[in-house]
Amino acid sequence: MIKLSDATLSQLPGNVQRPVYDRSRLTPGIVHIGLGNFHRAHQSWYLHRLMQRGLAQDWAIVGAGVRPYDEEMRRKLAAQDYLTTLIELDPKGSSAEVVGSMIDYVPVEPGNGPLIARMADPSIRIVSLTVTEGGYYIDPVSKGFDACHPDIRHDAEHPDMPRTPFGAMVAALKRRRAEGTGPFTGQSCDNLQGNGHILRQTVVSLARLSDPDLADWIDETCSFPNSMVDCIVPATGPKEIALAKEFGIDDAVPVSHENFRQWVIEDDFCAGRPDWDEVGATFSDRVHDYETMKIRILNGGHQVVANIAEVMGIDTVSGIMAHEAIRAVLHKVEQDEIIPHVAPVPGMTPESYVALIDTRFSNPKIVDTTRRIAFDGSSRHPGFVIPSIRDGLARGNPVRGLALVEAAWARMCEGTRDDGTAIEPNDPHWDDLNRTAKEARHTPRRWLEMTQIYGDLASWPAFADEFETWLNVIYRDGMEPTLRCYLEGAK
């Protein structure tokens, strides 16, 4: 077993790809905040592929985090020289590759002084983020900036000792303006419609609370490109560590991923960028159409099945797709209620994209858990499902299946499965959701009165009546019989 490090790269088995570039000659160009599995299997991999060609040697990644738990990841990665083993799980066979595009990780400290200093360094030209869909301080009702959040109030009052990644970005940009080193590009890589616009809104609005002139400078000089990212990347646990060992590698934090990646980016970088398009990324002025397809069909598709499967006790996404009724529900909801509101993109129709995600979700090598895709529904339903409901209502199209999806979420948040076993808390707002779900068991519309999630949808009978009926049927008959009713057109 080879302990992963720079010194042991030459000792790795011959069937493991490894960096062919001299990592000691790499210099930093990107700080990435929120360095989890997805980043290491996606953005880091694209950059690594460029480096394998002898390109982008001055764009190496410096990892970063702002929460205490990020320090554990930093220590694990530092112990193996920031290398990561990527394990591609293709149904035809697995393969392993060691990625070396990250060269450092900023110490995680209260006040984020080391992070601010690193982002203020003129060598850093891009600050990218994966901080989850719910991490951008968006007011749930107005969808604007949530200036009242305690973290935001703290950063506005203590701009030199921020808690949030956005406060750290503002502090670093303040230094760069004062020192004349210029702006950097802020690049969100989270699953948000218009993620660049949202990142701009958060950074500029936060800056305005403490320094309006700085806010104007950021808004005028920094760029925040929109992008769409796509790759299914399960969480790392004992199984993934064991997979790496099957390749002869002792890696404390390996990453497994499917045999598919996509990255579509708006070409708007104020301080330069790597040529990611040389290794498969797409620069396009139609990012909105690509991200709508992906967010509505794939991410929305995950929400269609996640809560149904949790209530039925099905643990994995491939297990979900092996269940005839759930798979049929997914296809019916996608076909009838989601893809009518999705435009085609070059080389891909909505119908062919549904077929693609069927194949991807069904990959038995990917042990992607139901719990992972069901996590943080309070952010994911408003972002991935409710826009399709609103489009359907606006155009007079059916929303019957999506009402069932929302009823299944309410049923899941009640906290028990059909077999009586407990569902562990799985949302940052679980206590509120669980309390409301228990009330909705007897008064279904109580669930839709969560205006921070549903807005005015409780007042739309075409949706609210369907929701109420489905939730009552689920409690009366159970989840699986309810699916059969939906597929048969009955109630």
Automatic annotation (TrEMBL):
Keywords: Oxidoreductase. InterPro entries: 6-PGluconate_DH-like_C_sf (IPR008927), 6PGD_dom2 (IPR013328), Mannitol_DH (IPR000669), Mannitol_DH/Oxidoreductase (IPR050988), Mannitol_DH_C (IPR013118), Mannitol_DH_N (IPR013131), NAD(P)-bd_dom_sf (IPR036291). It is an enzyme of class 1 (oxidoreductase). GO terms for molecular function: mannitol 2-dehydrogenase activity. It comes from the Bacteria. SUPFAM superfamilies: 6-phosphogluconate dehydrogenase C-terminal domain-like, NAD(P)-binding Rossmann-fold domains. Transmembrane segments: none annotated. Its EC number is 1.1.1.67. Residues 29-277 form the Mannitol dehydrogenase N-terminal domain. Residues 287-472 form the Mannitol dehydrogenase C-terminal domain. This is Mannitol 2-dehydrogenase. It comes from Hartmannibacter diazotrophicus. The gene is mtlK_1.
